[in-house]
Design goal:
The structure holds 2 protein chains of 2 kinds.
Chain A lengths: L1 E12 L2 E12 L3 E6 L5 H8 L7 E6 L2 E2 L4 H7 E4 L11 H11 L4 H14 L15 H12 L6 E5 L7 H16 L3 E6 L2 H4 L4 E6 L2 E6 L1 H6 L5 E6 L5 H10 L5 E3 L3 E6 L2 H14 L7 E4 L3 H9 L6
Parallel strand pairs in A: 3-8, 3-9, 6-7, 7-8
Antiparallel strand pairs in A: 1-2, 1-4, 4-5, 9-10, 11-13, 11-14, 12-13
Helix pairs in contact in A: 3-4, 3-5, 5-6, 9-10
Chain B lengths: L1 H19 L1 H17 L9 H37 L2 H5 L6 H29 L8 H28 L3 H18 L11 H9 L1 H13 L12 H28 L2
Helix pairs in contact in B: 1-5, 2-3, 2-5, 3-5, 3-6, 3-7, 3-9, 6-9, 6-10, 9-10
Classes of the chains: A alpha/beta, B mainly alpha.
């Protein structure tokens, strides 16, 4: 059974074509992560699926209901967590949950019971009496996911949910999201963080308004042809450094990082000392060098030739 | 029942948020109270029985001032805050009617206005204000007071629809409140206004409704025209309804959909 079905979806703002024919199917109960750079069209796609925007052409449906013509039916079946923190900071966590429950039409008594249950589910019961302004980023995000689960949502949409969270809060948040998914809720998450997408059962790469590749995370990594990645920390960047590192890259492509470069390499044990020597030769003493297995971000780079995080 | 839940949820949330912002609560109520206490200093040489009714008129005008602040400044400020933090993006993905949500906000504005009006009326009485009226006039005055609430909320919704950002929306509301107060015959006696401002005072739903309240409860001599004539009353009601409808349509169209 299909939870989300998208066929030939186009969206333009004037002459700017943001979505250029997106085709996508997400099965019920699946955890799908859509990866892409900022501006690739991810948020536009999610805004159409959550009935916040209309497509220029094509069709999109959620739980069998058309996102344009049956928006009310779709809205009854989805929960949406936008990128922005939408919860009211002067209200307590519990008051927020009751407010959103009542917006869904639940009478006060039922809304209170739902708030208690969801606080517990999201491990917020000890903080539900605190104002949201006193919450950490992770707690606030968990509260907002709780509001998205209020109507007993069949499909949960999340737009860059871990932005601004520290690594530990992010890990907790993704664990909780997997628990939600294991209870049968379809999760559709857009992200530009590869580690987040690893939590999904299926991942799609989006670039320039199109889905370029889909698959489960391991399948994508194994099928990428990438064997190893060397992170090279350099004191400076420039054409001379790049031409040396390029010679060691099996992809004939380098990825620039904050600290230096990322080299895709098949024989890292042989390459490492050679890289150090070559860089020394041009007076660029390499700092930290680290070899690791390729990640989803590396595979994304290989497919699109663009870094996920710029 | 479901519609009532939505309206009451928004009313409750808006009231809680307002009452927890102590600075906003303080200035909303303090400014009209300050004017109420300070302005009668200028009544030197006026006979005592007139002064008490002048204070009565001033008390009513300060109630209107507070209603304008709540509707034209606090309401768009709170809408802008919610817009900035993505609440409308969230609500637009929920099966919620913008009209019911807007109605909830207006009910909250009405409640804060009633609270403030009671505070100002009590303060006015303590300060020596008196009214010369019967029950019928008092009920009519409450009706006109309701018009000021509805018209101010309508103006507030229009501001919220077209002015982005909490600070900009709040300042626009404060500016419009002061302009209406000073140019609409509430700060200066109507006969002293130039012809163009006299027309503005009669046409503006808030200033004309305020004139009707003062006319009914404090005395005809404080108003330079008959705000209770059939034409004037009809004008107040129609312009209030118009502003309110334009406000609600703008709100549901721009605050909900454009963000």
């Amino acid at each position: 059974m299909t939870a989300i079905s998208v066929t030939g979806l186009h969206k333009s703002y004037g002459s700017l074509e943001v979505l250029r024919g997106v085709d996508l199917n997400v099965r019920r109960g699946e955890f799908y992560a859509l990866m892409g750079q900022n501006g690739s069209g991810k948020t536009t796609l999610i805004s159409i699926l959550t009935c916040n925007s209309r497509p220029t052409a094509g069709a999109a449906s959620v739980q069998g209901h058309d996102a344009v013509n049956e928006a009310y039916e779709v809205k009854k079946r989805i929960g949406y967590v936008p990128q922005e923190n939408f919860s009211c900071s002067t209200l307590t966590g519990r008051e927020n949950l009751i407010f959103f429950a009542r917006l869904y039409g639940f009478p006060r008594g039922e809304a209170e019971a739902l708030a208690s249950g969801l606080s517990e589910k999201m491990e917020l019961q000890d903080h539900s009496g605190k104002r949201v302004s006193e919450y950490s980023g992770g707690m606030r995000k968990r509260l907002e996911v709780a509001t998205a689960l209020l109507p007993g949502a069949d499909v949960l949409f999340l737009d860059e949910p871990t932005t601004g969270l520290d690594p530990s809060a992010r890990k907790d948040f993704l664990r909780m999201l997997k628990e939600v998914n294991s209870n049968g809720v379809t999760v559709f998450m857009v992200t530009h963080i590869g580690e987040d997408a690893e939590a999904a059962s299926r991942v799609g790469f989006m670039d320039e308004g199109r889905i370029m590749l889909e698959g489960d995370p391991e399948e994508l990594k194994n099928g990428s042809g990438l064997s190893n990645v060397i992170e090279v920390e350099t004191p400076r960047k420039g054409e001379d450094v790049e031409s040396i590192l390029m010679a060691f890259s099996s992809e004939r492509e380098l990825q620039e990082t904050d600290e230096g470069y990322r080299v895709f390499c098949e024989e890292p044990e042989e390459a490492l000392p050679a890289i150090v020597r070559a860089l020394d030769g041009i007076g660029c003493r390499a700092g930290r060098l680290e070899t690791r297995a390729p990640s989803l971000e590396d595979v994304f780079f290989k497919v699109t030739r663009k870094p996920l995080r710029s | 029942m479901m519609a009532m839940n939505v309206v009451l949820a928004v009313t409750g949330k808006s009231l809680r948020e307002f009452l927890r912002e102590r600075t906003v609560v303080f200035w909303t109520y303090a400014v009209p109270l300050f004017f109420l206490i300070v302005l009668p200093v200028m009544y030197g040489g006026v006979p005592a029985d007139v002064v008490s009714r002048l204070k009565g008129g001033l008390t009513l005008t300060m109630v209107t001032f507070l209603v304008m602040t709540a509707g034209q400044s606090n309401l768009p400020g709170s809408i802008a805050t919610d817009g900035e933090r993505g609440l409308y993006l969230k609500m637009a993905s929920m099966p919620v009617s913008p009209w019911l949500e807007g109605l909830g906000r207006i009910l909250a504005t009405t409640a804060t206005s009633i609270l403030g009006a009671l505070l100002i009326l009590v303060s006015g009485f303590i300060y020596g204000a008196s009214f010369d009226c019967g029950l019928k006039e008092a009920l009519w005055a409450m009706g006109f007071s309701l018009l000021t609430v509805v018209a101010s909320a309508g103006v507030g919704l229009i501001i919220a629809a077209f002015v982005r950002g909490e600070s900009a929306a709040t300042h626009t509301g404060v500016a419009l409140t002061l302009i209406t107060y000073f140019l609409g015959g509430m700060a200066l006696p109507y006969p002293q206004l130039p012809a163009v401002l006299q027309a503005f005072a009669r046409l503006h739903p808030v200033s004309s409704a305020n004139a009707a309240m003062v006319f009914l409860l404090a005395g005809e001599e404080f108003i330079g025209y008959n705000p209770l004539s059939a034409v004037q009353t009809a004008s107040s009601i129609v312009s209030t309804a118009l502003i309110f409808v334009v406000g609600m349509v703008s709100y549901s169209r721009f605050c909900w959909r454009r963000r």
